[in-house]
Write a structure and sequence with these properties.
The protein has 133 residues and is an all-beta fold. The chain has one domain (4-128): Jelly Rolls, CATH 2.60.120. It is built from no helices and eleven strands. The strands form two sheets. It has a six-stranded antiparallel sheet, with no helix packed on it. A hairpin with a 3-residue loop joins strand 7 and strand 8.
């Protein structure tokens, strides 16, 4: 797997549309959220049309493992104050070992962002299709 970039039809500033992460089917993957601000954020991770919500409290981090099902995995992040958060249009995919991958990106409030740069919540998604336990 080579590093790739996922492109969307929106402008370079990003938008609040859900982002699809190409996790291979029937693969365990880990989601880590790091919340850099003072209110709760919620990630909605949709796997095969089922929404799994993961809350991250103020100024903290959470990690949870999921299984990808058919491989259709989308993310949206909500801010408890402003609603859906903006995500970048291009999300880089990086190889992880011989058979895995990593997608990392930041989010920001959709309005009243004093310090833009997608650093309100950091999202890290990692998977490997061959893990021996």
């Amino acid at each position: 797997m080579r590093a790739a970039s996922m492109k969307r039809g929106a402008g370079a500033e990003g938008d609040t549309s859900p982002r699809t992460i190409p996790v291979p089917g029937n693969t365990n993957f880990t989601v880590t959220l790091i919340n850099n601000e003072e209110w709760v954020r919620t990630a909605d991770i949709t796997i095969d049309a089922t929404v799994n919500s993961l809350d991250v409290p103020a100024n903290s981090a959470v990690t949870k493992q999921f299984t990808s099902g058919s491989g259709e995995v989308t993310f949206s992040i909500k801010d408890s104050q402003y609603g859906l958060m903006k995500m970048p249009v291009d999300i880089a995919l990086t190889p992880l070992g011989e058979s895995g991958g990593v997608a990392s990106f930041g989010t920001e409030k959709p309005v009243n962002e004093l310090r833009s740069g997608y650093m309100d919540v950091f999202v890290h998604v990692a998977w490997d299709t061959v893990i021996n336990t």
